[in-house]
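worker-03 picked up job from queue 'complexes'. Input manifest follows; two sequence lines, order preserved.
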Amino acid sequence: AQKITQTQPGMFVQEKEAVTLDCTYDTSDPSYGLFWYKQPSSGEMIFLIYQGSYDQQNATEGRYSLNFQKARKSANLVISASQLGDSAMYFCAMRERLQGAQKLVFGQGTRLTINP
Amino acid sequence: DVKVTQSSRYLVKRTGEKVFLECVQDMDHENMFWYRQDPGLGLRLIYFSYDVKMKEKGDIPEGYSVSREKKERFSLILESASTNQTSMYLCASRAGLVSPLHFGNGTRLTVT
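worker-03 finished. Artifact:
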């Protein structure tokens, strides 16, 4: 079963609009963490934002915020006021403990294209 | 700034060859990881290591092995390369459990 699901293979958004990238997860570990990464066409993986399962408030980092709905097991990334430079692949990832080991598993990714 | 360096950006090997992918980090991180990235599949964990000489299998370890003799270096080994191992390989390290992964620039391996 897929641990991290990103249902949007691709998204097209007009510049300056807000965009929400979906991520749902599945885990039985009560102490887990959720990460979002950006991968531009250059290939580097850039860390954007982190949310711990016990964090009471949604994480925010500049124009990025994480809409964390624990009961629904979703951790959507919201980018406000999108810019052309936001065009990239975006990956949701989850840290969980499985059989004593702390693993980080990734979703399939969403390719975001910002149109001028 | 954390620097994770992968020795090769592009690599072309023949079927059956033994292939070494090297990764070095300069921040004294204990945890290191190897992923492969394929279109539509995201990143899949091959192996990871919590400390020197320690290794744990990830989700797709078959056909791979790893070596961690020194804290800063984590090597991925393809014992006998096959065409289905053609992929982008990403190495990463992290300081602790809640710390983000820091990635290298990747090695695009082609096996012919």
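worker-03 released lock.
The longest strand of chain B covers residues 31-38.
The interface with chain A takes residues 33, 35, 40-45, 48, 56, 58-59, 88, 90, 92, 97-98, 100-103, 105-106 of chain B (CB under 8 Å).
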